[in-house]
Every structure is written in structure tokens, then in C-alpha cells.
Amino acid sequence: MKRLTVSQVAKASNVNIETVRYYERRGLISAPPRTHSGYRMYANEAVDDIQFIKRAQDLGFSLEEIKHLLCVYKKEDYFPIEEMSQFAAVKIQEIEEKIHQLNNFKSLLESAISRQESDLPKNQCPIIKKLSESGDL
Amino acid sequence: MKRLTVSQVAKASNVNIETVRYYERRGLISAPPRTHSGYRMYANEAVDDIQFIKRAQDLGFSLEEIKHLLCVYKKEDYFPIEEMSQFAAVKIQEIEEKIHQLNNFKSLLESAISRQESDLPKNQCPIIKKLSESGDL
DNA sequence: ATTGACTCTGTACCTTGGTACAGGGTTTAT
DNA sequence: ATAAACCCTGTACCAAGGTACAGAGTCAAT
Question: Domain range holding B137?
């Protein structure tokens, strides 16, 4: 199994080389084995892990949260099982709420586009009207 | 129509009082009218606007993006129509992608809970297995 | 008319999540 | 054997999004 240098990992996962080392320092990715001269040599897995981090970040999770998420992803038991289950249950709720809100934002944006296309007066736009009334936005 | 002081707005929208002024400086909320002695007096609307900002932030949007989103929300024409439609179209794509990813994370977390409950060896957990194979996580 | 709880502006400081050297060693290709 | 292109650690710096004063004015109640 061929191993990767830090710059290869950085390139493959499309992040800055310093970011890879930063994630190691923050305890998000585990410290890889080193060559005799101290160079980090990563398994391909590290690239997946970093991409996982980036996706989670884009969804609004903090690095501390992602530490827990990664632990689930990699099926590790760095944190006690109790804590992990508790964490998972809470995050599922939050995710459902986020999906709900994202759908609201999507409707809002769609209404903006259709408003522009049809050039209707805004108080006659049915989507906007419905959203305003429901108090969901 | 009763108007609110800055601290009342802050309290009602559950943010720091300095944050309200910060959003004004950043151009996210419009500068409210002042009393004779210079005190800001807000319409109730300001609370909605701030809550909108907070929801958008929680979904991973930056304050610059939220400036545009708010403009759609409030049906203002601060930005040219062309730019807004373009913006809306791009954001709709991003939102769909985010929803997709959130569903993936949700499945991951659900699998973690069921794994713990059933205490199955992980390679026998059908949800985890499916997710790993699809390459979606 | 004075005390306490507000408000104002302006500037300084903080946290998160990086990013960029400096100063030094290593590896590879010529 | 020497330059180019890596890597190391450590520390400094940066941008975004706030948060916290300081110094001064205002308002409401006693």
C-alpha cells in the first residue's frame, strides 16, 4: 500500500499543506507514521478523512463537532459510547432542523427567480405570500 | 407602532447588544431612526431580520452571502436584478447539495445509534455497509 | 439633583480556522 | 556536490465574526 507525503495529501484533498498539519495538531486526523528522517507518510484514508472534514464544515459544523462526527465515521471509540449516542441523537435533531430551514431558503430563492421572470407585483406572488404568512421564514 | 431600543432588540432576538450595532455597521440591517438624543429606535421587523441572519449563519452562509439573502427576503433592490437572479440560481444548487450531504450525515449518525443498540459487529451493519460502498460518505 | 440603568462612538481585544514564514534538515536529479 | 524541491518545528500573522471596554451623554425614579 503506497503511502503519501503531506503535500500529496494536501493536493489530493484540495487543502493547504499547513491545514493538514493543523488538523493533526487539533486532533482531527491521527498522527501518521514517519520515515527515518521524520517525514509524515499517510495512508490514502487520510484524504477521505480530510474531505469528510471539509464537507462537514460546509454544513456549518465546528471542528470540535467534526471531531465527534469523524469518530462515528471511522467507527472509533475515542469518546465513551454514552457520549457518542447522546451526541448522535442531538445532531440528528439539528440536521433535521437544518434541512427544514434549507428548504425554506430554497423556496425563498425560487420565489425571487420566478418573481423576476414574471415581473409580478410582489404582493401577488403566491409563493412569497404563503411563506410570509406561515411565519416560516 | 411601538418601537424598540437596541437592548430590547438584542434581547428579543437573543444576540449580544454589540452584535446588533455590528450588523448595522456591516450593512446587514438598515440604520434605524433615532430619538432627538441619538438613541436607535427599531421597528419589530428588526428582530425578524436578525433571526433570519442567525438562521442563515447556522446553515453555513457568510455575512456577505446573507446580505444578498436578506435582500431577497425583504424584497429590496439593493443589488441589480441580474446579479440577484444569478445569485439565487447558484445558491439553490448549493442548498440542494447541502441537503443531500445533511441526509448522508444523518444516516451516518443513525447507523451509529443502531450499531450501539444492537451491538452488531460493524461489518454486519447494513446501513453503514451501504454507505461505505456507495462512496457517498 | 443625584443615582442607576440606559445610550452613544470609537477603538481594542477575542476566538475560530487557518496561512505564512524563518531557520534548518533531506532527497532527487544533474 | 550542489541546486531545486521537498520536509520539519515553531511562531507570527491573518480574516471573519463578534465582544468588551472607555469616556461621555441621557433618562427615570427617588
Answer: 80-137
